[in-house]
Design brief:
By secondary structure, the protein is of the alpha/beta class. The protein has helices at residues 11-22, 55-68, 130-133, 149-158, 223-230, 265-286; strands at 2-7, 27-30, 72-74, 78-84, 87-92, 96-104, 126-127, 141-145, 164-168, 182-185, 189-193, 200-203, 208-210, 214-216, 234-235, 238-239, 252-254. Helix 1 (11-22) runs parallel beside helix 2 (55-68) and helix 1 packs parallel to helix 6. The radius of gyration is 20 Å and the shape is globular. The N and C termini lie close together (10 Å). The mean pLDDT is 92.
Amino acid sequence: MLDVIIIGAGPAGITAGIYAKRSNLEVILLDKKQSSLKKAEKIENYYGFEKGISGEKLYNIGINQAENIGIDIKKEEVIKIEEIEKGYLVKSESEEYLSKTVILATGNKRNRPKIDGIEKFEGKGISYCAVCDGFFYRNKNIGILGNGSYAISETNDLLNIANNIIILTNGEEEPNFRADNVNIDTRKIKSIKGKQKVEEIEFEDGSTKNIEGLFIAQGVAGSSDFAKKLGIILKEDKIVVDEDMQTNIRGIYACGDCTGGIYQISKAVYEGTKAGLAVIKYLRQEKI
């Protein structure tokens, strides 16, 4: 069993990993998504770079620094985290890992689909968590928006709950997935409609499809997605942590943009430092 699994390879995750590894903990870091840091053309407000530095270069420097001290960085998409006795089971699209602790550092997920009606019906037929809300859609006809590994994982969680499921790729490639009560539609979506709750999908070709609920699983799962499934407290979709960056669930920590506040590299590095040190202290005290 590993000592800590870190999900996210931005400044917060890399920093946490460096501190944990230098304390001789067994660490792996899982990350497949595109870091927002890599999109920054030039960073001029971070200490130590008198002429500035591109976000992509700074990101690669961090990756290299972590690998140089022996941190195993795997480009795998994490699709599920489950609590087990004395630790956590972390499932990626291809592997399963056991760890005593987990640090969430996947940044601030900003990929709410730009589809008319999504925001309006959140909590009124629109859900972001199959495990949390699947019970309310027993024997109903529902949709799942997405086409990647995360969407398929959510579909699997709903197979024995819903009556019929339609995977809506919204114009993206059709996933290689088949099940008796699952259909796939690759058409672009124009809007989500209904009176008091979700009732139908309107496609850009003018046709409609009746559904009784829609689960959003577009792209890669973020920290808040995992938090909802684990029962971690959120405030305005940001993870609530204590002074040691620990969530309300023992052994699970969060750092960086996913905790809210100012979205700056300096803040992410600071919180990554605190999370790494806190995990070291926790494991020594618990002696697990």
